[in-house]
Amino acid sequence: MASTGDAFLDEQIALVGADRGRLMDVLRAVQTRYGHVSDASASAIAAGLGMHVGDVIDALSFYAFFSRVPAGRFQIRLSRTPISRIHGADAVAHAFCQALGIAMGETSPDGLVTLNWTSDIGMADQEPAALVDDVVVTALTPEVVPAILAALRAAIDASTGIPSPGNRVPLPHARVHPNVIQAGPLLSRAARRGDGIRAALLLPPEQVVARIAAARLRGRGGAGFPTALKWRLCRNGPDGERHIICNADEGEPGTFKDRVLLSDFADLVFDGMTIAGYALGAPSGVMYLRAEYAWMLPALHDVLAARRRLGLLGGAICGHDAFGFEIRIQSGAGAYICGEESALIESLEGKRGAPRDRPPFPTEHGYRDRPTAVNNVETLACVARIMENGPETFAALGTRESTGTKLMSLSGDCPHPGLYEVPFGITLNGLLDLAGAPDAGFVQVGGPSGRSVAPKDFGRRLAYEDLSTGGSIMIFGPDRDVLDIVLQFAEFFADESCGWCTPCRVGTALLRDQMAHVAAGRATLRDIGALESLAGTVARTSRCGLGQTAPNPILSTMRDFPERYEARLHAADFVSKIDLVAAQRESAALQGRHPVEELF
Amino acid sequence: MPLGTLQFTIDGITVQTQEGQSLIAACDAAGLYIPRLCYHPDLRPAGNCRVCTCRIDGHQAAACVTPVRDGMVVENDTPQLNADRLALIEMMFVEGNHPCPYCVASGDCELQALGYRLGMTAPVYPFFWPRHEIDASHPDIFLDRERCIACSRCIEASRMPDGKSVFSYEGRGIAMHLHVDGWGGLGATQMAAIDKAAHVCPVACIVIRRDGYRIPNGQRRFDKTPIGTDIEARRKAPPS
Predict the structure, then answer these.
(1) Shortest Cα distance from A535 to chain B (angstroms)?
(2) Backbone φ and ψ of A34, nearest 5°
(3) Given A428, A440, B158, B217, which is the most exposed site by the fewest CB atoms within 10 A?
(4) A63 pairs with which residues across the strands?
(5) Per the entry, which co-factors are needed (chain B) (predicted)?
(6) B84 to A541: CB separation less than 8 angstroms, yes or no
(7) Chain A residues with CB-CB distance to B125 below 8 A
(8) Of A335, A513, A541, the CB nearest to B126
(9) Interface pTM (ipTM) of the complex?
(10) CB-based contact B52:B39 (threshold 8 Å)
């Protein structure tokens, strides 16, 4: 292997065996070490992995957590969601800006901090929250800000000019509460690790699939695809190697169930992955962990090491000579779209997270073109429970179409935000009563890509056959500005669109801009009609679920809260979307004249 | 029917074709035009413009990336689908800067031609007025990213037929744009004017220098007949 001339880089490239599919690991290592990935590093990485620089730039420039220009010694990323802003994120941001003398998106003059907004970081129950490098700080107030910055400064002063990584700096408010408010059969009992695996190994693999089928388990990410069917399709795929991937890229704003499962029930999830590996005949599995959860990596690696000692990982698992299984954790780098399974696979292969067209489905041609089953974290935890307790016990709860319990992440205007394990089929009213928020103005079920539910529909049931959801439940009080929240969701999708297809790339940006006009009271009746029409086109023609669901908040609130839109309408027939004076400013300046403002 | 042959219907017309074809290729061969932009018959379909979206067995899907299945029922020429296609074309117009009246590609531009075919008058969306670098570093090829519609034809052509990987993307979302491999612009790459990648651009983003006005305005591909006419001409007259 040719040397890149950078010993650290050579070491990283050797660590991944110069496998270009592991580009993400190399980029992440360089980003962590140098604070950015320079053009020179990109060239060296390309040479080391035997790829074109353009392909490195393609991936590098796609992910929010990689930067190509030098940044501050610490990256502070404040979570910006309707929930964080309800709880005062703007004031916290203002306090950071004041204390550092910079605006959001800038680096402090002393090079200490680069300050940015970021999408949801999985802390909706303890907002405002932020990432300081890989450390999470929660329940922030403007008063905490000076102490955090002082701790960062002290960390640098104490060293010999070499920046200390943020994950070794003790910070105030660096605590994450599990916040399990109501536990059920999935979260309650501390099972002996490996019980589910031992039960599975007593059966032939196809019988394991049959038990999952008997439990009628469906995917917990929200789409509800039957897990046993996915596994069968994968088993029936082309002969040879198969892959099991645990989707821990929990990016839907408002959800944090995987955070709790991975921090407190990691063995259960790894049990589920191992059982899936046995059922599918996959010798190894990959957990794709979102970058926002990188703070869990050391603990997860400890769990894996313990499992290896206990014979639950590696060769001859539980003494079963014919079955060995390895697990690797792959970190993401800040891209909501990578929660979509084919985008996740692209990212795992070291590329930009652009979804694939289907067919072929991942169960036929997935990771490295092999049959691949991508399962949600909660789904795999359910798999372990089904093998431990039997499919009948599992299917005894819930409804006919939606068996078992579901983890609901509740946040927003309620006295007890946190994780609630409830049987499928519970009404939204029932859930709101549990959370002590009976008088909600509206509830966003399933995150921005889900739908807003008005009080008249609070009797609807949370189940695949009615309100299907991955479990994000954002509660908004009656006085909240619906249109402003919808605008924030529109901004989210425009930020997270991968850009591959026209309707999503251009459409989400247009939806954001048009919704801003509506929220600002500049939209006419005709504009509202055009917005609805545009939303329909984006939903119908986008390539993947992101674009197809991006218009949901707009369309569902237009339907359920028409009075909010009407109240904000501009009375005129036509309002120009172009500021004509501003549009002329540059040409006027070039020609040395002054715009005649009063004409407009 | 011989082995491997299958049939489907599109707008009520029955088409017989071979297994393994994409819907758009099967329809092209049968002389049935599905509006499209990023699709190029010589390149692997990328499915990014979505103009060829049809309703297939009740679901929308892009015809270029949908394999034909026996018995599939396709809707193509419907008011809803054509309205969506028009909206997509308008999105591409406002996303970039497309001054048709004085553009070198006018009359030979697939975006412009589709705008005409689908009945576009003026885009209803506000323009983004992007500012992108112009790359004039190559002696024979000129690259104007403001015209790019992110169809990825040049990326694909540079990879597969040319084997050079001159192009890729950079960034994401509305900020995504064409990236040229390396750091010295197009002039520092292996790209040559005879490359496939230099001849597949549907607009005037990649332009061959000293070649633009060889065919005068008024005598170009789409000046006489609308885009898709060549495909429709393949269809035998329907039995009366």
Answers:
(1) 11
(2) -105, -5
(3) B217
(4) none
(5) [4Fe-4S] cluster
(6) yes
(7) 510, 534
(8) A513
(9) 0.96
(10) yes
**Dihedral class, residue A505 (left if φ above 0, else alpha if ψ from -120 to 50, else beta):** alpha
Q: How many helices (H) and strands (E) does chain A have?
A: 24, 14
Which residues in chain A are closer than 8 Å to B62, comparing Cβ atoms? 357, 543
Q: DSSP strand E in B138-190: where?
A: 141-144, 167-170, 177-180
Query: Rg (Cα) of chain A, in Å, rounded?
Result: 25
Residues 6+ apart with CB under 8 A from A522: A570, A575, A577
Q: Does B175 touch chain A (CB under 8 A)?
A: yes
3-state secondary structure of A117: strand
H helical segments located in A121-163: 145-158
Q: Give the tens place of pLDDT for each residue, B152-168.
A: 999 999 998 889 999 99
Number of Cβ within a 10 Å radius of residue A91: 15
Two structure tokens written together for A406: 């579901």
Nearest-5° Cα angle at A276, A273 to A281: 125
Q: In the A/B pair of chains, how many CB contacts fall below 8 A? A: 123
Closest CA to A468 of A444, A493, A448, A450: A450
Q: How far apart are the CA of B216 and the nearest CA of chain A, in angstroms?
A: 31
- pTM here is 0.95
Return averaged pLDDT per consecutive 10 residues of chain A, 600 residues in all.
79 95 96 92 95 96 95 94 97 98 95 95 97 95 97 75 60 94 89 92 97 98 94 91 96 96 96 97 96 96 97 94 96 95 96 92 94 97 97 96 97 97 97 93 95 95 95 96 97 97 98 96 94 98 96 96 95 84 85 69
What is the distance between the terminal CA atoms of chain B, rounded to a whole angstrom?
Answer: 24
Interval B15-62: pLDDT, tens: 999 999 999 999 999 999 999 999 999 999 999 999 999 999 999 999
Q: Name the residue among A57, A500, A541 with its Cβ closest to that of B60.
A: A541
Neighbours of B233 (CB within 10 A): 10
Structure tokens at A212: 């999952």
d(CA A183, CA A187): 5
